[in-house]
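I am still getting used to backbone structure tokens and would like to learn alongside you. Label the sequence line and the structure token line clearly, so we can match residues to local backbone shapes. Would you write everything just below, so we can both look at the same thing?
***
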Amino acid sequence: MIKAEKYVILYSIRICANPKYPAMEIIEILKYTLPALIVLITAYLLIRTMIKNDGDRRNKEIILQNQKTITPLRLQAYERAILLLERISLDSLILRVNKQGMTSQKLQHEILSAIRAEFEHNLSQQIYMSPQAWEVIKNAKINTVKLINTSATQVKPDSASIEFSTHILERVMEMEKSPTQVAIEFIKLEFNSLF
């Protein structure tokens, strides 16, 4: 029996050394290629992680730089929006536009022209504001124009501008808040929440 065991062991060694049986050669090849493959995969994962982290860091730097540039512009946009709303408020417009000897029709035309000019002058500010804030500003403008036009129908076109002015201011006083005041409050709230 011992002789049979020796024969099996010798036969196994011969088979492994025999080129007809490439299993041992494959094992020999795997001894060198598996560690190399593991090193390659590890290097790939490390390099990929480094590249991703570097890209993330660069993106954060770009965002930070953009914020440094855009924040002052956004602040200025909110300031200009408040200024726009103050300038198109009806009491301010009447004091600024009304001239002695004007008719109500001429005053209406001048007020509407002033509102249009102020609004067009500040159109670019919407880039730096939220869509909701700009919508509130547009609504304030639209409601102010409606108030002017409906007041104009209540007075004769050739009547004195003071009559038209008085009618507009009475309508504003009847309201809880003027359209521009509602917009100013919204802009201030949004501004405080952002900055």
The chain has two domains: 2-51, 71-194. Helices lie at 2-17, 23-87, 90-97, 104-121, 131-152, 161-174, 179-194.
